Amino acid sequence: MKISTIDVTAERPYQVVVGTGALDYLPQYLADVKRIAVIHPPVLREAAARIGEGCDAEVLLLEVPTAERAKTGEILQRCWDTLADAGFTRSDAVVGLGGGSTTDLAGFVAATWLRGVRYVSVPTTMLGMVDAAVGGKTGINLQAGKNLVGAFYEPYTVLCDLAFLVDLPREELSSGMAEVVKAGFIADPAILTIIEDDPEQALDPSGEVICTLVKRAIAVKAAVVGADLRERTSVGRDLGREILNYGHTLGHAIERHENFTWRHGEAVSVGMTFVAELSRRLGRLDVDTADRHPRLLRAVGLPTTYPAEAWPALREAMNLDKKTRASALRFVILDGLAKASMLESPDEAELEAAFKALS
Ligand SMILES: NC(=O)c1ccc[n+]([C@@H]2O[C@H](COP(=O)([O-])OP(=O)(O)OC[C@H]3O[C@@H](n4cnc5c(N)ncnc54)[C@H](O)[C@@H]3O)[C@@H](O)[C@H]2O)c1
Ligand SMILES: O=C(O)C(=O)C[C@@H](O)[C@H](O)[C@H](O)COP(=O)(O)O
Ligand SMILES: [Zn+2]
Fold it and tell me: What is the CATH number of the domain that holds 57?
């Protein structure tokens, strides 16, 4: 399969390499480093052991827990201690090998160790490839909420080897599809048509369609973060990076409410369905586009409903959303396909009614 590259031109330009075999390019990005710390989850132990092949460097394997259990202060501290024991210096590099949870943590380790060492991201999930590994948001969760501690720290390169998708459980492919669908609604509606044409094909990990979807979603993300790496507050119709938070205000609150046991894409799927319904109720979005959300998301195996009783807890959790300014909630909404805008301090009754429509 052909290897493609997508340029990300933010503060320090880098390339995202996409295709089966992309991992073979790793040695060229690490040719001059002395040691490599590979941060990975248990399921990728064998792949991690092969990371140093072709590199003239000592490899330190740093296994971290599965999924969100890696994104904690305790695990972060353990990573720092391991690098300290190994005497890691600025001529060494960190590789994050895994899904978004692992690369969020690994990127933050690289950002903070000696105030910044080289970081190479090797996403191994659909969600990691299309979203988490690109754009330089790194960090961990607190019990109080999602991604509350972190840094903007750009990778040296991102290698998306599609071979990793073949063994990925179907629910994880679906979860990643939530961010692909997000990219479709906010910026590239062709993505939506491609999925609707044949949702099963879209989820085939060795097919051509998934490759097209991965590249299109990365292109959306690269363009957004290239223009606004550090997520300034939106100005008028120019939402900058905040646009990528479509569906995340409620989505992150659900993740916290579920004690970080839900997959990120599943929570974002409910969050997008909610905000589409809110946009429709406010007369901002047409019924067809609003209804297209749950239809499409369900077609790729994602949830779009949530119990009504959870509203008070979710409403409170949303206060800590990073888009909140003073006590005003702010939601990325749609005025139409690929026409996002920022809704500030929406009417509480409308919010609750939109949420209750999901139950
Ligand atoms: N930094 C960003 O811009 C950004 C963007 C989107 C999401 N995120 C974050 O990403 C995280 C979600 O990432 P995710 O969906 O990749 O989840 P994840 O990292 O938890 O991985 C999902 C599961 O797949 C397993 N896994 C990983 N690669 C595998 C493979 N090739 N084969 C089999 N199993 C594999 C993992 O061990 C885990 O159990 C969330 O914490 C979310 O907040 C960050
Ligand atoms: O890259 C971004 O910016 C995003 O908002 C992408 C989201 O998909 C992602 O989940 C991100 O981690 C959310 O960031 P947060 O700043 O709301 O925690
Ligand atoms: Zn997300």
Answer: 3.40.50.1970
How many domains does the chain fold into?
2
ipTM above 0.90, yes or no: yes
* Last residue within a domain, chosen from 165, 191, 207: 165
- Does pLDDT of 1 surpass 60? no
Q: What are phi and psi of 16, to 5 degrees?
A: -105, 120
Confirm or deny that 356 is annotated as ligand binding.
Answer: no
Query: Are residues 63 and 156 both part of a single domain?
Result: yes
Same domain, 138 and 200: no
The tens digit of pLDDT for each residue in 109-132 reads: 999 999 999 999 999 999 999 999
Of the candidates 319, 298, 311, which has an alpha carbon nearest to the alpha carbon of residue 355?
311
Residues 136 and 214 in one domain: no
Length of the chain: 359
Which ligand 1 atom sits nearest the alpha carbon of residue 107? 1
**Is there a single domain that holds both residue 350 and residue 247?**
yes
In this structure, the number of other CB atoms found within 10 A of the CB of residue 344 comes to: 11
Q: Residue 153's domain spans which residues?
A: 4-165
Two tokens, residue 87: 């005497």
Are residues 212 and 324 part of one domain?
Answer: yes
Is position 323 annotated as part of the catalytic site?
no
Q: Are residues 259 and 193 in the same domain?
A: yes
Residues 199 and 278 in one domain: yes
The percent of residues above 90 in pLDDT, for the chain, comes to 98
Tell the residue nearest (CA) to atom 20 of ligand 1.
67
Mean pLDDT over 204-208 rounds to 96
Q: Is 350 annotated as a binding residue?
A: no
List of residues 6+ apart from 120 with CB closer than 8 A:
26, 29, 30, 93, 94, 95, 96, 155, 156, 157, 158, 159
Q: Whose CA is nearest to atom 4 of ligand 1?
A: 132
Task: Give residue 129's pLDDT.
Answer: 98
φ, ψ (nearest 5 deg) of residue 6: -120, 125
Per-residue model confidence as pLDDT tens digits over 227-267 = 999 999 988 889 999 999 999 999 999 999 999 999 999 99
* Last residue in a domain, options 135, 165, 195: 165
pLDDT in tens, 312-354: 999 999 999 999 999 899 999 999 999 999 999 999 999 999 9
